[in-house]
Design goal:
The chain has helices at residues 11-18, 65-75, 86-95, 101-109, 129-142, 188-200; strands at residues 27-30, 45-47, 53-55, 57-62, 148-151, 167-170, 204-210, 220-227, 242-249. The longest helix has 14 residues, at 129-142. It is globular. The chain contains six helices and nine strands. It has a single domain, classed as Rossmann fold (3-Layer(aba) Sandwich). The strands form two sheets. Strands 5-4-1-6-7-9-8 form a seven-stranded mixed sheet, with helices on both faces. Strands 2-3 form a two-stranded antiparallel sheet. It is 26% helix and 19% strand. Strand 6 (167-170), helix 6 and strand 7 (204-210) form a beta-alpha-beta unit. By secondary structure, it is α/β, with parallel strands linked by helices.
């Protein structure tokens, strides 16, 4: 499913870097889970030193209620339609029922650029948007068995809410970029303060940001990777590839 800033091209590599910190009994939390392109690649089990495997709790959280409702329905077996007409799009756009899984599916997956209410995307012979979005959702839920979904803002997850050793991945809206119409204006400075407080409470914190941003004090770059899709279903011949950085701050006193 197309989703603005969805990490389609780099999600697997980000997950690989993050789960190097996973230990038996720890959890992986994706705070801005979006289209699940990172958490789907996080391992459901880790190996024990004495042999055998132990389950890892995977948690996906997002502040967009309709998005969580959609993923919950998909994990329970709901399959989105392969065709969405403009009339259906407009009907759902006007209603915006947060309890209907079609709301997020249509207003993200069938909108221009994967932007919430970004305008109906008309199918082309080489690109059928609703079908692509539907197939992507069905495929992703196969990788997400046992995933715990939660609707919450980052501000509601206070330092100490996760045990020491938790691996926390965050993909917040990048500073000075297009915001998310489905949510209120994002407070970037408040987010970074929040993330630092969790690191001080024993959490391994990873944050995705644009390569244009330098690491903040106490953070270091652990991955820099080109995302050729830039969150789009197909690469653009006009726009330059997007480069992402992954910053890390570990537990400290």
């Amino acid at each position: 499913m197309q989703y603005m800033g969805g990490k389609a091209g780099v999600g697997k590599r980000i997950a690989q870097v993050c789960y190097e910190r996973l230990t038996p009994g720890s959890s992986f939390v994706d705070m801005f889970c979006g289209s699940l392109n990172v958490v789907r690649h996080a391992p459901s089990h880790v190996a024990l030193a004495a042999g055998g495997l132990v389950a890892v709790q995977r948690v996906a959280i997002d502040a967009c209620s309709p998005l969580i409702v959609m993923w919950q329905a998909a994990l329970l077996g709901w399959e989105p339609p392969k065709v969405v007409t403009k009339a259906t799009y407009e009907k759902i756009r006007k209603a915006q029922d947060p309890k209907d899984p079609m709301t997020a599916f249509v207003l993200f997956g069938c909108s221009f650029g994967g932007k919430w209410c970004g305008g109906y995307t008309k199918d082309r012979p080489e690109q059928r948007y609703a079908e692509c979005a539907s197939n992507a959702i069905i495929k992703k839920v196969r990788d997400c068995k046992g995933l715990q979904l939660e609707h919450a803002t980052f501000q509601s997850k206070h330092p100490g809410c996760w045990p020491s050793g938790t691996v926390l991945y965050c993909d917040p809206p990048y500073k000075a970029t297009t915001g998310y119409k489905a949510l209120e204006t994002f407070n970037s400075e408040a987010f970074w303060f929040w993330a630092e407080q969790h690191a001080r409470n024993g959490v391994h914190v990873y944050v995705s940001e644009s390569a244009l941003r330098e690491p903040r004090k106490g953070w270091r770059t652990v991955l820099e990777k080109t995302n050729p899709q830039g969150g789009r279903l197909k690469p653009s011949p006009i726009k330059a590839p997007h480069v992402d950085r992954l910053f890390y701050r570990g537990p400290r006193p």
